[in-house]
Amino acid sequence: SVVIQECYVQNTAREYAKLYAAEAEPLEGFGEVPEIIQIFLIHRPTNNIPYATVEEELVGEFVKYSVKDGKEVNFLRRDSEAGQKCCTFQHWVYEKTNGNLLVTDLQGVGMKLTDVGIATLAKGYKGFKGNCSFSFIEQFRALHQCNVYCEMLGLKSLRTTHQKQRKATSTKSKNLPNSSTVKKMVPKKAREPRDFTYSEH
């Protein structure tokens, strides 16, 4: 069931967020860390929709912090503390999983997040099926800009590793036509926007 999958995605991302908090909170000057709220699955055998999810209601301005495509630049993401810490969280997870997993669709009220997604580079990474296209990972690599929180956690800049790889491929493959090396670097567009809403509680 899609509802069970959504539940699994959010609670997996929540575990990563707890590990991130454990590493970031002790750092001087880091401050509050974003939290992914828990989502509960309830089973109602007598109802015609037998599964539903229950979660804490978030009150306040609901903001989408994470990038979905290059066109959607969210200034609250770029300029707010919560937005920057969400971008750092994405970078942290990306680095921790060696670029195999990315938490996407970070959205919520202030530091409390919900309805997140997960993209994996390979299907079934650690037995986990992501619910977003892996092109989200390509996109993140191309668009992420490190901020002060990335620096505090000592995360490696994605720009420098990207450029080093580029130089390496261009020197190795001198005999290849340029177009093929250029094609590799073009991020694929995300195909399906995730628009699942479950008001059935």
From TrEMBL:
GO terms for molecular function: ATP binding; protein serine/threonine kinase activity. Pfam families: Alpha_kinase. SMART domains: Alpha_kinase. InterPro entries: a-kinase_dom, Kinase-like_dom_sf. Keywords: Disulfide bond, Immunoglobulin domain, Kinase, Serine/threonine-protein kinase, Transferase. Residues 161-201 are annotated as: Disordered. Residues 1-158 form the Alpha-type protein kinase domain. PROSITE patterns: ALPHA_KINASE (PS51158). Residues 170-182 have a biased composition (Polar residues). Residues 189-201 have a biased composition (Basic and acidic residues). PANTHER family: ALPHA-PROTEIN KINASE 2 (PTHR47091:SF2), ALPHA-PROTEIN KINASE 2-RELATED (PTHR47091). This is ALPK2 kinase. It comes from Vidua macroura (Pin-tailed whydah). The gene is Alpk2.
